[in-house]
């Protein structure tokens, strides 16, 4: 497998490029519209053809590049079927493998951050989206999020994976790239095995997080598979304008 972990600095989002060496087909997990050209350059440099974009959920902090990448490359858009997006070409469901060339990903429905959130497993790698972050987790206070659902998604489903499974998160805000299931079980201050459901409820209730500043643009735009608002203000242009030299993770 060809693998690249790419970083978008405005929303601290990781995009994952997975390529099949035998067929030359590739998938981008959680691509961001402002770094689309970087991703296309990466694909071209590796001699890969983009077959699919694949989002973990309807994002609230950035605009997905799914629609623009389809327009530019002819790729197909895959996203969780539970969200019922009219722009999706393939709805992802748990129990049905997602295949790109010779790569076979296992979709895992992991509600809690949003009700439609999915993580994806490929061999010993878990692309955990916002459900499980390194020493943390996604918030649960919007988009039909649920503290209890997130607890059970992570503790009952993700923590049942082998301890040496590599955890590649949807975001990181401290320049970290990868963890393991064993490390998160042991060290995660929110969802580690020593934390009870009642304690997790208290932790999440006391976060006192601000209202996401881009959510009112991002959610409706992402329900259309990645449409930037036409009335984008100067302060939000960085979320949609193409970045010429975006850092890579």
From TrEMBL:
It holds the Pfam family Lactamase_B. InterPro entries: Metallo-B-lactamas, Mito_Persulfide_Diox, POD-like_MBL-fold, RibonucZ/Hydroxyglut_hydro. GO terms for molecular function: metal ion binding; sulfur dioxygenase activity. Keywords: Metal-binding. SMART domains: Lactamase_B (SM00849). One of its GO terms (biological process) is hydrogen sulfide metabolic process. Coiled coil: none annotated. SUPFAM superfamilies: Metallo-hydrolase/oxidoreductase. Residues 12-171 form the Metallo-beta-lactamase domain. This is Glyoxylase, beta-lactamase superfamily II. It comes from Stutzerimonas xanthomarina DSM 18231.
